[in-house]
């Protein structure tokens, strides 16, 4: 890092101050009292001015301590879909053994659009506060500057500081609803014959109901016990295996990708084996978390050739 | 301290400050007192109607007050400005009591401060000072608790960062910083806009003319005019009584005395004369605190040898001294030598006074005849003066308040009919009879006596201590003080302990708050410099500013230091012991420096473990020792016990980290 880059980084991270609405009134009052005191030499006005200046000093010292001692990292959710809020978190902790940090607000400045506020971070402790991240595009998204700010202690000035938390987050395409066979899925073709698992009628397990499951497959006793609709899978039933084919030449390729994404997520959550045909890339039908990630990553990183 | 309690505390502080603002407003004048009384009733009502579901009481009260404040100027009960202030008060109360959030309370605090400012600009009593002190003590705590409440509302949980100790710390820091600012801020009296601070008038002193009998009007008034502390060269106070000379009057037309001051006036002192010149031993020092007067005469003993004042003083031909500028509170120091005696009044130009032998054209011939009869065969001015003085003292009676029909009596009436009167009659009779027997004489008005304050070690001089006497030229160029008033008219008194304490507090307030000015600051700076100067350089005698003069500067600096030292008390949590950097932390720092030296720069805000993970994610396995170092550091800093063999493991990890590859520069 050159000295210029370092200097630019430091200037970005410098603590800045902006008066709040009450702060502007306060400053106006200070100016008025200063003029009055200097004009008249009235010592009671000097006393008022001294009181106001002491408030100003205390405000600045405490606020400076508050922000300087704050450290931050973000905790991104495991999966991010564009245009969809995902519950992540910020972890704030205090470097100081003495003072607690008070009223820290966190805000993403570049991407992510997350905001959070922590009322108190105990001395040398840390606090995790949930934050909703939302991205407007798929692929690798850079999370950059985060602004931490606080109006502590008197609410007269907003003190803020920008922190570079460079990080790249992989954002999957948006999940478009539309049923099991809607959109891109309609272009999908069953590639393999259904396979049988286990003996006929043998109970394989239960899974949560997802949109598109036939109502008759809901196992009501299990649903009542668990508290949400559950579908029972039995041996002998078809474990469908199929491939989602995305028309990469379509002018609305992003829509195609979004529908494919929704289809894949839904199908995999139903336990189906699913593959993907995305331009030249072909992923054979499988199931499981690793496969799901592979499929979604392919969708997220897809780039149409020229 | 629990959060709900904290929220209540902020509101409670706000309410107290509202009341304090109202009380300060009440101390300004009668209208302010009336407004304050009504406002306090409003607070009491609001106290009764604290429940949030009873806003109707407030709505009705506010409507009533708005109506009253609108009608009051029309009914000429109060001027428009007072009506505006009244409205302000009620808007404040209304917002303070019906406000739904901390922002409303903040507005209430700002309005309370405005009331204090109004009171401070209008009146300078210690009551306003106490109100300001309350503001200084409570406002930071109130603002901080209000901010916590706002945070609570936004974040949804109850912060408890500010404990009782934190509140005390805030109050202490605020007080100390206020004191430091007050004492160290340079006093600038720019007077860009006209302002008059004189609020005390002194009939008999404000003009050049004094009607015979005027001083009787001052006899019943207990208004304080000045405080004087007379001390010897060892700073021991002297009780007095002392004559404090004001103006000399030489023209008498039978009814009134006037001064024939000519236009040529000379300056008595240069401003900022700090008395560096050495004084002869035995000289007494008088330190005078003069309340604002319209005519701004300078009162001091008649034989002053030096004067120290930051104001320009002019002296006329009759040795009358006046301040040159607008009336205001003043402080000055004069020195005089008691060994010179009364006969050494320095009136070098008064001997040339054109009217020192002037007599009214229509003077009753019986006056001159009486004078001639009294002096008998005396030939020297001194003998004549002695006989006339003794005669007046022995054969006339003192009466401060004239009897029915005797008010404004003439000189002849005093001398031949009633044969009783106050000091002005005695002085006039003596001066006129001296002139009738060819002795130059002028009447002097000033003060004599006063109340001794044992606690403060000073003398309080009030209007009722006004006095008149005579200065006469008993030998060529040598003027002496003659007082023909019988002793019964000049009885200095002592104050009771309670009064003395109250008076001392007021004097202290005046001395260190109201009268603290640029001169005090420069004097304090000089005194500080004297402390560090070689002993031979210090000015000898009482004129040199002593350590006491440096007290404000020292207190200001001390308050600043204490305020900085009080930072640890701002929060409820105790500060931990000073952290010692252990081997694990040192190893971590070295490891991170090594990684950064090889081009791996994690974001600066990342803590150790995250920073190590950041590098590990980019470099892979070779960065694992850095991860080990980070965890060792974490365990050492935050773990319940130090990591076993931490130093040894850190050393090994640091050695393994040497294999960390350099960062590959990113390709375009």
Structure in words:
- The complex is a heterodimer of chains A (306) and B (668).
- Chain A is built from seven helices and 15 strands.
- By secondary structure, chain A is α+β, with helices and mostly antiparallel strands.
- Mean pLDDT of chain A is 79; it is low at 179-200.
- Chain B has 18 helices and 20 strands.
- In chain B, strands 2, 3, 8, 9, 12, 16, 17 and 20 form an eight-stranded mixed sheet that branches. A four-stranded antiparallel sheet of chain B has the order 4-15-18-19, with helices on one face. A three-stranded antiparallel sheet of chain B has the order 1-6-5, with no helix packed on it.
- In chain B, strand 16 (451-453) and strand 17 form a beta hairpin.
- With 668 residues, chain B is of the alpha+beta class.
- Chain B is elongated and about 125 Å long.
- In chain B, helix 9 (381-395) packs antiparallel against helix 11 (423-436) and helix 17 packs antiparallel against helix 18.
- At the A-B interface, helix 2, helix 3, strand 2, strand 6 and strand 9 of A face helix 5, helix 6 and helix 7 of B.
- The number of distinct helices of chain A, counting runs of at least 4 residues, comes to 7
What integer is the average pLDDT of chain A?
79
Question: How many domain units of chain A?
Answer: 2
Using a beta-carbon cutoff below 8 angstroms, give the protein chain pair with the largest interface and the number of residues from each chain. Answer: A-B, 58 and 79 residues
Instruction: Indicate the proportion of strand residues of chain B.
Output: 5-15%
Radius of gyration of chain B: 37 Å
What is the straight-line distance between the termini of chain A?
36 Å
Biggest sheet features of chain B: 8 strands, mixed
CATH fold-level topology of the largest domain in chain A: Immunoglobulin-like
State the major sheet of chain A: 6 strands, mixed
The percent of residues in helical segments of chain B reads 40-55%
SSE sequence of chain A, one letter per element: HEHHEEEEEEEEHEEHEEHEEH
Strand elements of chain B, count: 20
Secondary-structure-derived class of chain A: alpha+beta
Number of strands of chain A: 15
Tell me roughly what share of residues is in helical segments of chain A.
25-40%
**Poorly predicted residue ranges of chain A:** 179-200
């Amino acid at each position: 890092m050159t000295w210029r880059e370092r200097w630019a980084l430091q200037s970005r991270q410098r603590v800045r101050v902006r008066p709040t609405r009450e702060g502007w009134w306060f400053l106006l009052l200070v100016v008025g009292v200063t003029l009055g005191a200097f004009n008249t030499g009235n010592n009671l006005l000097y006393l008022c001015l001294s009181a106001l200046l002491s408030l100003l000093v205390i405000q600045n010292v405490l606020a400076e301590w508050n922000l300087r001692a704050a450290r931050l990292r973000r905790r991104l959710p495991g999966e991010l879909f564009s245009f969809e809020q995902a519950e992540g978190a910020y972890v704030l902790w205090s470097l100081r053994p003495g003072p607690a940090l008070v009223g820290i607000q966190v805000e993403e400045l570049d991407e992510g659009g997350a905001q959070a506020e922590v009322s108190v971070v105990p001395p040398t402790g840390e606090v995790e506060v949930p934050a909703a991240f939302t991205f407007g595009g798929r692929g690798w998204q850079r999370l950059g500057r985060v602004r931490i700010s606080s109006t502590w202690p008197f609410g007269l000035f907003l003190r803020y500081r920008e922190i570079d938390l460079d990080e790249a987050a992989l954002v999957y395409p948006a999940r478009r609803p539309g049923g099991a066979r809607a959109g891109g899925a309609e272009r999908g073709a069953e590639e393999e014959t259904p396979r049988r698992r286990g003996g006929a009628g043998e109970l394989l397990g239960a899974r949560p109901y997802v949109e598109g499951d036939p109502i008759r497959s809901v196992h009501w006793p299990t649903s009542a016990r668990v508290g949400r609709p559950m579908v029972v899978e039995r041996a002998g039933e078809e474990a469908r295996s199929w491939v989602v084919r995305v028309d990469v030449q379509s002018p609305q390729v992003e829509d195609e990708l979004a529908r494919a994404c929704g289809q894949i997520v839904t199908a995999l959550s139903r336990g189906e084996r699913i593959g993907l045909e995305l331009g030249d890339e072909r992923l054979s039908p499988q199931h499981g978390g690793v496969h799901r990630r592979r499929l979604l990553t392919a969708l997220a990183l897809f780039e149409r050739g020229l | 301290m629990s959060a709900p309690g904290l929220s209540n505390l902020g509101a409670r502080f706000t309410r107290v400050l509202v009341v304090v603002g109202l009380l300060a407003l009440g101390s300004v004048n009668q209208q302010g007192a009336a407004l304050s009384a009504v406002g306090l009733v409003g607070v009491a009502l609001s106290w009764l109607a604290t429940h949030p579901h009873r806003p109707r009481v407030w709505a009705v009260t506010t409507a009533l007050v708005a109506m009253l404040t609108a009608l009051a100027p029309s009914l000429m009960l109060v001027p428009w400005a007072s009506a505006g202030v009244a409205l302000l008060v009620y808007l404040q109360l209304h917002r303070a009591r019906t406000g739904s959030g901390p922002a409303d309370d903040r507005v209430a605090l700002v309005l309370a401060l405005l009331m204090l400012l109004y009171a401070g600009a209008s009146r300078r009593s210690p009551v306003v000072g106490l109100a300001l002190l309350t503001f200084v003590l409570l406002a930071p705590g109130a603002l901080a608790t209000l901010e916590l409440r706002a945070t609570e509302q936004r974040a949804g949980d109850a912060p408890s960062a500010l404990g009782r100790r934190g509140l005390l710390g805030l109050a202490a820091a605020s007080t100390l910083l206020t004191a430091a600012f007050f004492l160290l801020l340079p006093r600038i009296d720019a007077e860009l806009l006209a302002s008059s601070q004189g609020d005390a008038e002194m009939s008999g002193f404000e003009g050049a003319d004094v009607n015979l009998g005027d001083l009787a009007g001052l006899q019943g008034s207990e208004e304080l005019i000045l405080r004087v502390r007379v001390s010897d060269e060892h700073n021991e106070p002297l009780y007095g009584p002392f004559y404090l000379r004001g103006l000399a009057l030489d023209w008498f037309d039978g009814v009134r005395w006037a001064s024939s001051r000519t236009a040529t006036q000379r300056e008595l002192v240069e401003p900022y004369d700090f008395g560096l010149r050495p004084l002869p031993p035995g000289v007494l020092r008088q330190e005078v605190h003069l309340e604002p007067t319209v005519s701004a005469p300078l009162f001091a003993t008649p034989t002053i040898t030096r004067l120290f004042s930051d104001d320009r003083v002019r002296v006329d031909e009759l040795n009358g001294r006046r301040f040159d500028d607008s009336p205001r509170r003043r402080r000055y120091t004069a020195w005089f030598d008691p060994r010179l005696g009364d006969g050494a009044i320095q009136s070098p130009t008064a001997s040339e006074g054109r009217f020192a032998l002037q007599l009214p054209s229509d003077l009753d011939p019986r006056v001159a005849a009486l004078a001639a009869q009294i002096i008998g065969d005396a030939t020297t001015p001194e003998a004549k003066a002695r006989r006339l003085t003794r005669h007046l003292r022995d054969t006339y009676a003192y009466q401060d308040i004239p009897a029915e029909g005797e008010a404004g009596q003439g000189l002849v009436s005093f001398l031949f009919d009633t044969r009783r009167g106050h000091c002005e009659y005695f002085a006039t009779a003596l001066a006129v009879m001296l002139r009738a027997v060819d002795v130059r004489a002028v009447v002097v008005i000033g003060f004599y006596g006063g109340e001794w304050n044992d606690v403060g070690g000073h003398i309080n001089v009030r209007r009722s201590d006004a006095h008149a006497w005579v200065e006469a030229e008993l030998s060529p160029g040598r003027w002496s003080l003659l007082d023909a008033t019988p002793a019964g008219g000049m009885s200095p008194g002592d104050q009771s302990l309670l009064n003395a304490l109250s008076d001392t507090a007021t004097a202290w307030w005046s001395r260190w708050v109201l009268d603290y000015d640029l001169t005090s600051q420069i004097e304090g700076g000089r005194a500080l410099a004297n402390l560090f100067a070689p002993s031979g350089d210090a000015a000898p005698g009482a004129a040199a500013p002593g350590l006491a003069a440096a007290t404000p500067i020292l207190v200001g600096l001390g308050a600043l230091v204490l305020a900085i030292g009080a930072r640890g008390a701002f929060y409820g949590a105790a500060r931990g012991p000073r952290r010692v950097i252990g081997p694990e932390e040192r190893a971590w720092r070295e490891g991170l420096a090594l990684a950064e030296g090889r081009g791996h720069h994690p974001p600066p805000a990342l803590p150790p473990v995250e920073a190590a993970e950041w590098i590990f994610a980019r470099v892979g396995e070779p960065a694992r020792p850095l991860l080990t170092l980070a965890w060792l550091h974490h365990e050492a800093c935050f773990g319940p016990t130090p990591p076993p063999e931490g130093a040894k493991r850190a050393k090994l990890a640091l050695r393994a980290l040497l294999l960390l590859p350099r960062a590959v520069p990113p390709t375009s």
